[in-house]
Amino acid sequence: MRIGILTGGGDCPGLNAVIRAVARRSWANGHEIVGVREGWRGLVEGKLEELGPSQISGILPRGGTILGTSRTNPFGQDGDVERVLTTFSDAGLGALVAIGGEDTLGVAARLHAQNGFPVVGVPKTIDNDLSGTDYTFGFDTAVSIATEAIDRLHTTAESHNRVMVVEVMGRHTGWIAVMSGIAGGADVILTPEDPETIEDACARLVRRHDEGKDFSIVVVSEGYELTYASGERRLVAGEALESDQFGHVRLGGVGHVLAKEIEERTGYETRVTVLGHVQRGGTPTAHDRVLATRFGLKAASLVHEGRFGRMAALQGDAVVDVALEEATRELKRVPASMIAAAREIA
Ligand code: F6P
């Protein structure tokens, strides 16, 4: 069988490790691998390339994706779904491995449900917000990068008696903020799941300074809504709430507004670091390389067994498979117990 493989949505460390594992097990099973360029756009526009051992060699530690990616949504344009199906059959493909987050896998689930499309999914995202799997690969790397940044900010915060606000990604969940905030010893952690008011957060900073600590670290999720004691709530997003083909607004900028609020309300000198795409770049951690590899091996087996409409997933320590719909059923939020731990320790 000729098996297509694509990576869609925002890139993240570990994508190449999945590609490598899918290819290796599929070759061992007697199949061929065809790379689809730039996510679903590659099937819409017919951008395919044969993948052999030389293309796969040396990619395990490489960040990004050798296939390129995009946020193309074939359900967003008239005729694109038909183009996807035509490219797929013209190339003689018998199956597709789609590696992506809620958008890419949402398209895969819909194509499978509506057209019987032979696809299996692999869950990726630094945000860790997909249901059906305990963790996605890419998340551990993002948390490690954010934690290292917080460690570094501690020393300069302490030297200058400053408040340092660190804005991290994660879209509408606070996984990266909570994990890096706990690991880095942040003093305030603000997330969409636990929208503490600005007034309460500032009161905590003042208390800490009154107790003799004259510097603080505040970690804020890009998706935290500025929340005030008055009940007002405000999401900070890109210009005119600009959205992509899947309808997501571009988040970012809450750190700057928050820093201004903190400085005005407490009088403490405050600086901001927006980690941005640094969290998605570079080599995957060992943990993510292993998880990505296990997911890739599982996806190759699902294809070989003809078990389409399924997604590789981590449950406890086991790599299992779940229905593709499961991944996109609902946003996986940070559980209350983890939020409580963050509150207690920060
Ligand atoms: O979903 C991954 C993610 O990095 C989010 O955390 C972030 O909001 C978004 O992608 C950024 O998207 P883009 O790369 O299109 O700016």
Mind explaining what this structure looks like?
The protein has 346 residues and is an alpha/beta fold. The chain contains 12 helices and 13 strands. Strands 3-2-1-4-5-12-13 form a 7-stranded mixed sheet, with helices on both faces. α7 (175-184) packs parallel to α12. The longest helix is centred in the middle third of the chain and has 22 residues, at 139-160. The relative contact order is 0.18. It binds 6-O-phosphono-beta-D-fructofuranose. The site of 6-O-phosphono-beta-D-fructofuranose has 11 residues, from loops.
Please estimate the helix content. 40-55%
Bound molecules: 6-O-phosphono-beta-D-fructofuranose
Radius of gyration: 22 Å
Q: What is the count of DSSP helices, taking H or I runs of 4+ residues?
A: 12
Tally of DSSP β-strands: 13
Unreliable sequence segments:
none
Largest sheet: 7 strands, mixed
Helix vs. strand class: alpha/beta
Shape, per Cα inertia axes: elongated
- Ends apart, CA distance between termini: 53 Å
| N-to-C SSE string, H for helix and E for strand | EHEHEHHEHEHEHEHEEEHEHEEHH
Strands of the widest sheet, in order across it, are: 3-2-1-4-5-12-13
